[in-house]
């Protein structure tokens, strides 16, 4: 698998620290769950900001901007000018996935009823493969931000970029947690 460049990791870390700094100003009055949400929002926004403007990053920022209380953080991280250029949130995404899930439940029920009534017809291997590819593509579209509106090729390209970015996000956050843990241990040893 391809590695993400160091510049992406540096930009992600810079954006993450900016987002955490913004969130820490009111950390004393936040519950543990609110802190967790603030960290996740900062990490997701930093991930999208560090990206090179791919479709998934724009969709992620658009989806994050519709969350309650997220606008001030996103505005701080992006700047006022860039924040004003954000398109309206993508509402069709979650509706598409919910509709797909409801359709899947109904289809499963009707298929089981048909199987009870008759013997299933012989299906060619090619038709079965196409059906599996289509089903898996629909699931992937629900996982990638903005994927509902992409063709198969674009979806695979965006998915690979998104996976690399998520991997870099995990690596940077693990290293940051390790550094903070070591710093905490050293402070406790000195006291």
Strand percentage lies at: under 5%
Number of DSSP-assigned strands? 0
Level of helix content? Answer: over 70%
What is the residue-averaged pLDDT? 78
- Over the alpha carbons, how many angstroms does the gyration radius reach? 22 Å
Helix/strand structural class: mainly alpha
* Main sheet summary: none
Order of helices and strands: HHHHHHHH
N-to-C span: 45 Å
Count of discrete alpha- or pi-helical segments spanning 4 or more residues: 8
Low-confidence stretches: none
Shape: elongated
What do these coordinates show?
With 191 residues, the chain is mainly α. Helix content is 76%, strand content 0%. The protein is built from eight helices and no strands. Helix 1 (6-24) crosses helix 4, helix 2 (32-50) runs parallel beside helix 4 (71-78) and helix 6 (92-117) runs antiparallel to helix 7.
Spell out the key features of this protein.
191 residues; mainly alpha
Q: SSE layout and pairings?
A:
Elements: H1 6-24, H2 32-50, H3 55-64, H4 71-78, H5 80-84, H6 92-117, H7 125-143, H8 152-190
């Amino acid at each position: 698998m391809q590695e993400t460049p160091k510049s992406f990791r540096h930009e992600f870390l810079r954006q993450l620290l900016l987002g955490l700094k913004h969130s820490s100003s009111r950390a004393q009055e936040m519950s543990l769950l609110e802190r967790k949400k603030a960290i996740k929002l900062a990490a997701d926004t930093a991930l999208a900001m560090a990206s090179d403007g791919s479709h998934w990053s724009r969709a992620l920022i658009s989806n994050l901007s519709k969350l309650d209380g997220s606008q001030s953080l996103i505005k701080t991280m992006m700047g006022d000018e860039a924040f004003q250029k954000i398109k309206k949130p993508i509402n069709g995404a979650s509706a598409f996935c919910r509709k797909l899930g409801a359709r899947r439940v109904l289809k499963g029920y009707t298929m089981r009823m048909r199987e009870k009534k008759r013997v299933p017809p012989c299906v060619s291997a090619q038709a079965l493969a196409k059906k599996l590819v289509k089903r898996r593509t629909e699931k992937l579209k629900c996982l990638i931000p903005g994927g509902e509106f992409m063709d198969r090729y674009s979806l695979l390209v965006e998915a690979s970029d998104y996976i690399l970015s998520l991997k870099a996000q995990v690596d940077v956050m693990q290293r940051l947690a390790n550094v903070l843990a070591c710093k905490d241990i050293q402070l406790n040893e000195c006291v």
